[in-house]
Amino acid sequence: MSRQYSIGNLTCFYCLVVIILAMPADVFSAGKDKVKGPIIITSETLTADNKTNTAIFEGAVIARTTDLTIYAGRMIVQYNGVTGNVTQIDAQEAVKLIKENRVITSKEATYFANEEKVIFTGEPRAVQEENVITGKKMTYFMDEDRFVVEDSKVFLIKK
After folding, report:
1. Are strands 45-49 and 4-6 parallel, antiparallel or unpaired?
2. 10-42 burial, b if ≥16 CB within 10 A, otherwise e?
3. Domain-located, residue 125
4. Tally of domains in the chain
5. Which domain holds residue 70?
6. Cα→Cα distances 152→29, 139, 143, Å
7. % pLDDT > 70, the chain
8. Is residue 145 in some structural domain?
9. Tens digit of pLDDT for each residue in 81-136?
């Protein structure tokens, strides 16, 4: 599988490298077990736009930290043009987040850096061991390792 990058110039490439390396690994981790370090994002295609401060990853997108992996068909990363810090990530098309023994799937997910939260929409489903939670909208507050689920259905398997 080859990787193609639609990058207009060296400045755009430099900015993208800064995004990936400056992005903290705790973007999707919770609690005091946060791991510092980069997020590695791979995809079939990358389009970066310095004017709008966005990087669009398309095709078999995988974002990895040391304790978390996110899969999506498309991921739009918005960043601060001055600091390079990520401000928002929109994941689309068969989103799947895996952390330890928890798997969350949905059609779309949006990460808000300032609020340290992820909102899953489009048939969100969280599975941990044999327990399943579904709903219309699922909000994960990462710092608190807490979920709020709208129109929830909970299936608990007693052990």
Report:
1. parallel
2. eebeebbeebbeebbbbbbbbeeebeeeebebe
3. no
4. 1
5. 4-115
6. 23, 12, 22
7. 75
8. no
9. 888 888 899 999 999 999 889 999 999 999 898 888 999 999 999 999 889 999 99
Q: How far apart are CA 121 and CA 64, in angstroms?
A: 21
Q: What residues contact residue 117 under an 8 Å CB cut-off, 6+ apart?
A: 111, 139, 140, 141, 142
3-state secondary structure 80-116: CCCCCCEEEEEEEEEEEEEECCEEEEEEEEEEECCCC
Q: Rounded to 5 degrees, what angle do the CA atoms 56, 57, 63 make?
A: 125
Q: Are 137 and 126 in contact (CB under 8 A)?
A: no
3-state secondary structure of 13: helix
Q: What is the value of pTM for the model shown?
A: 0.75
Query: What CATH number does the domain containing 58 carry?
Result: 2.60.450.10
Which 3 state secondary structure label does DSSP give 17?
helix
Beta-carbon contacts of residue 52 (< 8 Å; ≥ 6 apart): none
Q: Measuring CA to CA, how many Å separate 86 from each of 8, 59, 121, 131?
A: 21, 21, 21, 33
